[in-house]
Design goal:
Layout: H1 15-20, H2 24-30, H3 32-37, H4 46-68, H5 73-83, H6 85-103, H7 112-128, H8 134-160, H9 179-182, H10 199-220, H11 223-244, H12 247-261, H13 265-270, H14 277-290, H15 314-325, H16 331-334, H17 340-343, H18 347-351, H19 368-400, H20 406-420, H21 432-455
């Protein structure tokens, strides 16, 4: 991949000069998340055609980068395998299980899902494994981190221009008022931004952008300038989260920033344990709202006893999913295929959580682990948790010796993905933006370590 002129982003970087120096490939990487979201602006069946058009530039980037690294591909792959065989094995088997899930889907799998999986995997390889120089990998890493804010800015621009999303807001429901804005006395309907995959989906993206921006500013800025930038970007992110009424991403992002900024190697060593949060939270809250964990629970059990813990209907959804898994069947080992909640007979129950039932096929388990068990079985869920744990562990090691902040930014992004995975299907193919960023982060970890192993390449 072409490197482009100019140096690395740093404390005194001139950001306009950096933007002017971007090559076409680098612009495509910066706009990758926006391109992935583009089909959301269209309604069926046009959105399926737009998927192909939106991903064409990224495929062109993949082919061009792979051709440019023709002499280094075999060596790069060999080095990656030598340093990260467990991570690569987990990713490879998970990718295979996910592909099988697409084939076994109870309904026709949207064209978008398998294309996103393949595009993300290939991007991760060519972007971070094949560059010849560490400076290239570092620069590309910052572009990946910046792609979240590029997507947020694109949505803001299109909203100002009057473009509306093609997605439905909770099926046929009208847009409800934002509870977050109501806390400060503003009566404003929740906003569905033009390229948003849904209110929750875009809230997750904004939360991730907040985490990456806050950690980047903390690493790169100095003195009072650091505080001003941190306050300004945080205020913008919180305001947009309030517009979309995304409470879960707001809390997950704030917790992630605090956790990552706590000094000490002991804290970094414990971060991989966070992968168990998406398992523990549903079990604990369903137990708190239904009375007994071992008791068979219906969809609305506990609603009267503990309304504060309902989390906008999530505990009812989790209760139904856990009741399904409490009666083991062979399908729980390998899943029911993509949108497994439909084959398991849970989709209609899920849709009842909304007063004006949403499309049953679109309202999933609202939890990373529960959705993966329904789709790819316990095997698929275990492999995803193993993959996330290995990525977080390796990022923690890199961040402890990283003098430019990029490792810390990616570490925050992965920790946030795990925390919000307790409330949403993140990072999976249902949330394309965070899924592709997870794959790119894995590519960064593998590529950087392989470069260091290969010949004393310094930090990024």
């Amino acid at each position: 991949m072409a490197d482009g002129p100019s140096g690395l982003p740093g404390r005194r970087a001139q950001w306009l000069d950096q933007l002017r120096s971007l090559t076409l490939n680098e612009w495509l990487l910066l706009l990758a998340i926006g391109l992935i979201e583009l089909p959301n602006a269209f309604t069926p069946p046009w959105n399926q055609a737009v998927v192909v058009l939106a991903l064409l530039p990224l495929w062109w980037l993949i082919v061009r980068a792979a051709n440019g690294a023709r002499g280094r591909r075999r060596t790069a792959i060999r080095q990656a395998w030598r340093g990260h065989r467990w991570l690569l094995t987990a990713l490879g088997i998970f990718g295979l299980l996910q592909s099988v899930a697409f084939i076994r889907a109870p309904t026709l799998t949207p064209l978008r899902a398998p294309l996103i999986l393949d595009t993300g995997l290939l991007l991760a390889v060519v972007v971070f494994w094949f560059p010849a120089r560490a400076e290239s990998r570092h620069r590309l890493g910052w572009l990946v981190a910046g792609s979240l804010w590029a997507a947020v800015a694109l949505n803001l621009l299109l909203a100002v221009l009057g473009l509306r999303s093609g997605s439905l807001f909770y099926g046929s429901n009208p847009q409800s008022e934002s509870l977050m804005l109501g806390l400060i006395g503003l009566r404003q309907p929740a906003v569905l931004f033009p390229l948003a995959p849904g209110v929750n989906g875009f809230g997750v993206v904004i939360g991730a952008a907040w985490v990456t921006a806050a950690l980047a500013v903390w690493q790169l800025a100095e003195g009072t300038r650091r505080l001003w930038w941190l306050a300004g970007l945080s205020a913008l992110a919180v305001f947009m989260l309030a517009l979309t009424d995304s409470r879960g991403p707001s809390i997950a992002a704030a917790l992630t920033i605090l956790l990552i900024l706590i000094p000490g190697k002991a804290v970094r060593r414990l971060l991989p344990v966070m992968v168990f949060v998406p398992i523990v939270l549903p079990v604990v809250l369903v137990g708190a709202t239904s009375g007994a964990l071992g008791q068979e629970t219906g969809l609305l059990v506990g609603a009267e006893q503990a309304p504060v813990l309902q989390l906008s209907g999530r505990t009812q959804i989790w209760s139904a999913a856990l009741a399904e898994l409490a009666e083991p069947v062979p399908g729980h080992l390998v899943g029911f295929g993509y949108a497994g909640h439909v084959a398991a007979g849970l989709s209609e129950q899920f849709s009842q959580v909304r007063s004006l039932a949403a499309d049953p096929n679109s309202l999933g388990a609202h939890n990373l682990v529960l959705q993966l068990v329904l789709d790819s079985g316990y095997f698929g869920a275990a492999l995803m948790l193993l993959t996330l744990g290995l990525i977080i562990r390796d990022l923690g090691r890199l961040a402890s010796v990283d003098d430019n902040g990029l490792g810390t930014v990616f570490l925050g992004l992965m920790c946030y993905s795990v925390l919000i995975g307790a409330l949403e299907r993140v990072p999976t193919v249902y949330t394309e933006e965070l899924f592709v960023l997870m794959l790119l982060t894995a590519g960064y970890v593998i590529g950087r370590q392989a470069a260091v192993t290969a010949g004393g390449v310094g930090p990024n």
